[in-house]
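FAQ: What does a ligand-bound record look like?

Like this one, built around flavin-adenine dinucleotide:
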Amino acid sequence: MADSVKIDPGAIATANDKLRPEQFDVLIVGAGLSGIGAAYHLQTECPGKTFVILEARNATGGTWDLFRYPGIRSDSDMFTLGYRFRPWRESRAIVDGPSILRYIRETASEHGIDRKIRFGHHVTRACWSSEDARWMVEATDANGEAVRFVSNFLYMCSGYYDYSEGYMPGWPGMERFRGQIVHPQKWPEDLKYSGKRVVVIGSGATAVTLVPAMTDEARHVTMLQRSPTYIVARPSQDAIANFLRKILPARAVYVVVRWKNVLVGMYFYGLSRRKPDYMKQGILNLVRKELGPEYDVDKHFSPRYNPWDQRLCLVPDSDLFAAIRAGKASIVTDEIETFTEKGLRLRSGDELEADIIVTATGLRLKLLGGMQIIVDGKPVDMSRTLGYKGVMFSDVPNLASAFGYTNASWTLKADLTAAYVCRVLNYMDEKGFAACVPRRRDADIVEEPMVNFTSGYFLRASAILPKQGSKKPWKLYQNYALDTLSLRLGKVDDGTMEFSRSNGNRAV
Ligand SMILES: Cc1cc2nc3c(=O)[nH]c(=O)nc-3n(C[C@H](O)[C@H](O)[C@H](O)COP(=O)(O)OP(=O)(O)OC[C@H]3O[C@@H](n4cnc5c(N)ncnc54)[C@H](O)[C@@H]3O)c2cc1C
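The answer part, i.e. the structure of the complex:
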């Protein structure tokens, strides 16, 4: 007689549960700054909706948990990097990464959002069915097992870069170097740099943060840049905010200072576009004031491009300039010819000796968390889509993505996006629609790159990025005031967005 097979009823139930996808009205991908904000908006403005957040990592905070290099901070002020709905109350306006992380986590726990997160869930694929008006979302869970979810709406808050590794150009001779090479995205927890000679390759926000931060212990820190970036000093405390706090409630101060900072930012961005030479000279004069007449400001601080063709770098309380003045840090503008055993040989023939070389060479852009998108059986090539209001994509139904500003704080746009998604969901409920999709109907629209930035990471990724259109609603304003009008007050049914009931029936 054959051995009887013992069946464990519990095991069957578990297996069935895994096969049967869980259903939600909205599925959010990512529990960073945007995902937590999106969840707050959803549960406040669409209280009837069920939702879950799938997060690939085992922690909230995204960027602000991942990056652990010395001095990690934002260069945006917290009045605009903070959520519209949660005032920033500390005296410093430009703060370090751990403070931003605490702010995100406090928001999540205060509003019970942390209970809605499934950690260790890496989303890999989403398939839309117009027939059912729903997404089937596939993910790998913390045990490496495939899991599936069903949702009517998919809200991508997965950031914009590859979490697995940063961008690292290959230089000749790297393997010969006897010291340590470190990328800021994977900072070793136990890295000791006390008394060491450090070279930081790069000139972006990460480099200008790391250089002064490492001078406290390092013997000397050199920032090696191929070409300069615009660098502007700004106080880390906002004097107006700190004064207003004495006479006004925190929420009122937050509103006033947030708008002040938005308008000041927009003014200087606009001025940079209209009068680039004037702005350039203004910025360089400020650097000359910091470093004195002997310093070669033109060589080390005068970029080849105009202000705001790439993101401006901000240094709080002039920390980078102070480190240079104190002789603890220096800037070398040159190109790497090769790594050597002892450091770097440069095109000029100079040698830079180093114990540690930090490659602050940037990020690798990754769209929608690397997830594959399929609409009615056809894979979507995102580079052929057109961004709609900087929130949705042409011919991709019921999917929104949080993508912040490149010329202002990320959260300003992420907040507006969340408010807009809630408006769309409420509108569909009110009218009995199950699906919405932006359709490109105007033949006059000219395609343009999604981001008009010349930064290396955007140029490297231009082939995979969606496009923007030359006219609204396909135009990416990069302007908080215009986006407020469009996303908070503009008509949801604007003639470009097509709505349908389930079974693919188009609304007339
Ligand atoms: C070093 C650094 C400094 C910065 N400084 C500023 C600044 O000063 N001002 C500013 O405005 N912006 C700044 N930014 C941009 C910054 O990323 C945004 O401010 C903001 O943190 C983005 O939040 P997010 O939630 O949209 O994305 P992220 O913080 O990137 O979070 C995305 C989350 O989604 C998860 N995820 C991604 N893919 C998947 C997937 N397939 N499945 C499941 N989960 C997934 C990730 O694990 C992560 O937790 C900085 C970025 C960096 C890297």
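Follow-up question: can I read anything off the structure? Yes, for example: The chain has 14 helices and 25 strands.
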